Amino acid sequence: MLSIKNLHASVEGKEILKGINLEIKAGEVHAIMGPNGSGKSTLSQVLAGNDAFEVTSGDVTLNGENLLAKVTEERAREGVFLAFQYPVEIPGVSNLQFMRTAVNAMRHHKGEPEMNAAEFMKLAREVSKQVDLDPAFLKRGVNEGFSGGEKKRNEIMQALLLQPKLAILDETDSGLDIDALKVVSDGVNALRAEDRAILMVTHYQRLLDYIVPDYVHVLADGKIVKSGGRELALELEERGYGWLGIKDEATADSSALSNSAN
Amino acid sequence: MATTDQEVNELIKREYEHGFVTEIEVDTFEPGLNEDVIARLSAIKKEPEFMLEWRLKAYRRWLEMQEPDWAHLGYEKIDYDSISYYSAPKRKEDMPQSLDDVDPELLRTYEKLGIPLHEREKLAGVAVDAVFDSVSVATTFKEPLAKAGVIFCSISEAVRDYPELVQKYLGSVVPHTDNFFAGLNAAVFSDGTFVYVPKGVRCPMELSTYFRINAANTGQFERTLIIADEGSYVSYLEGCTAPMRDENQLHAAVVELVALDDAQIKYSTVQNWYPGDENGKGGIFNFVTKRAACIGKNSKVSWTQVETGSAITWKYPSCILRGENSVGEFYSVALTHNYQQADTGTKMIHLGKNTSSTIISKGISAGKSSNVYRGLVKFGPRAEGARNFTQCDSLLIGDRCGAHTFPYIESLNKSAIVEHEATTSKVSDEQMFLCRQRGINPEQAVSMIVNGFCKEVFKELPMEFAVEAGKLLEVSLEGSVG
Ligand SMILES: Nc1ncnc2c1ncn2[C@@H]1O[C@H](COP(=O)(O)OP(=O)(O)OP(=O)(O)O)[C@@H](O)[C@H]1O
Ligand SMILES: [Mg+2]
Asked: Distance from the CA of B352 to the center of ligand 1, in angstroms?
């Protein structure tokens, strides 16, 4: 489904991705782990088409089509979904209106009729229950004043509404309490499907107890330095990144800080 | 994101939708202004003697006045002698008696603008007093209004038919000495609307006027006077669009509202005059004086405005809160792009006890435009227990535009309470990316974000106007993602 070949990308002249190779087949769940600042969010954003990042070389195809040639909204309509590490607020725009506009853009693209406000309201209420968000959140501004955990659940809610082909989840587990982690994991597991691929960025092997990945990759300094199965995550938890010859998280602190605006 | 600016530029480039010119034979004065011109104007309008005197007095005073330069605006000096002070659509008799009498070309113009009078007649009870250039050409729904005792007519008619009311109130809120543009208007006002709602009457429908400037080089000097007698209520809608023109056109309107005891006036405006092209060429110069006098106790006036047009906007709808417990409100959305300049806001003058006012201002700037909020909240010595709440928000689209806020507070009464909140935000690349990542195209995203930003103001608009306002913002923003 998704094929990434020798992908290089930079931001403000600084190379962040230094030759990523990755193949994800339909139905698979891949986890990406790695120290702060190693390029995990950059990879996610580049796949979604954020033009703050410049792709300097490499190829990415989704179902055989050149993904890099398409603008963000086209990629989205063709099934690329990104759950943001730091979901941004849009004050004044109701969550409900935002999501309906998105769903209708998607339906329009597929030649399906648009959903009216009443129909969508019904659907949205059901899905909000699925991620344990009070329907009152539908009326609030997009992410406006949401807690960290509420924002993450709101992202998963959007994934469930939009039913993407490729779901990229950037640290959707971070900042969640134990119950919320379960809720979000159930949501992600509900997304698992034969015709869907999931790429999941996480720091915690704990998440992988709930969402069992088919593959685990370690990204360090813009490259995938190790790939394995579920057990790789356990090993990382036990031994840290050091044994792979990677600088440990502590040394990446400064980049973690500067990254928070991403 | 590098592309956002580019998208914004494309959106901004969208051409003015209403840029077409109607070909109508116009009976227009030679350019220039003197006492003779004013006398001719008054004669054409068959005005009573007092009106001509009133005009001439204003004119003589105006000659001594200076054009104000304190606003945050830059424009070339206006040559008042290059302006023609009267133009009217050609007509068979004195005035068209019904739509059948109206120039079909004119009706087609309204059609193109999406203001089909025929439809409006049938639709939701909106009476339309359509002003084309300087003369009212069609008025509908006069009957149900007459039944209720509401007078809704052109100001020219009112001058002839209700001289006592006109003499009592015209210039009582905005005297000709008030400012340069109000003085000019008093001298040469062409036409406009007059409304009188009698005691205890709730006006049975929203009243509305569509303005449109047409003939080249024609100044437009509208004059509106609305009087709400004791315990009455009226909602008035004003909206306008103008055809594309290269020359700058001056518009200097005066609107006066008078609310007596327990009366309420709601005045809503959607303004979409030609803003000039993307290089700042052309566009309407809009110098308007709008003011309400809440002279009665418990009276209330709400100004709601959505301003997207004009090259230059100089406009401060204000309330003089004289009556005890009187209330003034100002809800405003002002959008500028390209080289548009807006210096707009309000004045709330608290004179009476326990008077209160609310100001909600939303400024949106795109392109290379400049958007200024200028507001004055003043408490007189007798304004015991008066209070004001002001919220002033600016939204920037792109990084070449400007937003400024000048709030002035003057208090001569210690018991007065003022609350002021102000924010400036930007449509961020991250917001745009989020929307686009969800499949929403940039134009729609901007429009959605801007509409969200303006929500508090839109909800103050009458239903049908709110829809129109949303549409207008979308049109104005096509290319200027909010
Ligand atoms: N817009 C930007 N401008 C400058 N540098 C950037 C920008 N975005 C990312 N970077 C840098 O790129 C590097 C990779 O950042 P990225 O966000 O991809 O890391 P990450 O692996 O997601 O880290 P974390 O685990 O902390 O989320 C960091 O050094 C970061 O500072
Ligand atoms: Mg990250």
From this structure: 59
Residue with tokens 């009216």: A116
**Residue B387, token pair as written in the block:** 């209070």
CA distances B310 to A64, B330, B334, B369, Å, are 51, 20, 11, 12
Euclidean distance between CA atoms B84 and B243, whole angstroms: 18
Contact B444 A93 (CB under 8 A): no
Which of A114, A197, A94, A106 minimizes the C-alpha distance to A154?
Answer: A94
Check residue B82 and report its DSSP letter. G
Q: Strands A197-201 and A166-170, how do they pair?
A: parallel
Q: Are strands B284-294 and B312-315 parallel, antiparallel or unpaired?
A: parallel
**Beta carbons of B347 and B376 less than 8 angstroms apart:** yes
The sign one gets for the Cα dihedral B432, B437, B441, B444 is negative
Read off the pLDDT of each residue in B54-72 and give the average, rounded to a whole number: 90
Residues sharing a CB contact under 8 Å with residue A177, sequence separation 6 or more, in sequence order: A149
- A243, two tokens: 């044994």
User: CA of B318: how far to CAs of A16, A222, B273, B325, B326, in Å?
Assistant: 56, 60, 21, 17, 13
Which strands form B417-426's sheet, in the order they lie side by side?
B135-139, B127-132, B207-212, B233-241, B264-272, B300-307, B327-336, B356-365, B387-396, B417-426
Chain A residues touching B2 at Cβ < 8 A: 51-52
Sequence-ordered list of residues with C-beta below 8 angstroms from that of A251, at least 6 positions apart, any chain: none
pLDDT grade for B140, boundaries at 50, 70 and 90:
low
What pLDDT is recorded for position B216? 37
Residues 6+ positions from B160 with CB-CB distance below 8 Å: B46, B47, B48
Residue of B427, B434, B481 to mutate for A, most A C-beta atoms under 10 A: B434
Dig out the tokens for B316 from the structure: 């401060």
Q: Identity (one letter) of the amino acid at A228?
A: G
**What amino acid occupies position B7?**
E
The predicted-structure confidence for B66-119, as pLDDT tens digits, reads as follows 888 877 777 788 888 888 887 765 443 444 455 565 555 545 545 544 554 544
Chain B residues touching A169 at Cβ < 8 A: none
Which residue's CA is minimally distant from atom 18 of ligand 1?
Answer: A39
Best mutation target, B423, B435, B449, to test chain A (most A CBs within 10 A):
B435
- Please give the average per-residue pLDDT across B432-438, as a whole number: 96
State the Cα angle at B308 between B304 and B310, rounded to 5°.
Answer: 115
Interchain CB contact of A255 with B (< 8 Å): no
Tell me, yes or no, if A165 comes closer than 8 A to chain B by beta carbon.
no
By C-alpha distance, which of B267, B259, B311, B262 is closest to B290? B267
- Considering the entire predicted model, what is its pTM? 0.79
Decide if B267 contacts B301 (C-beta within 8 A).
yes
CB-based contacts of A34: which residues, under 8 Å, 6+ apart?
A40, A218, A219, A220, A241, A246
Q: What is the DSSP letter of B97?
A: S
The DSSP symbol for B106 reads: H
> Tokens at residue B221, please?
């000097």
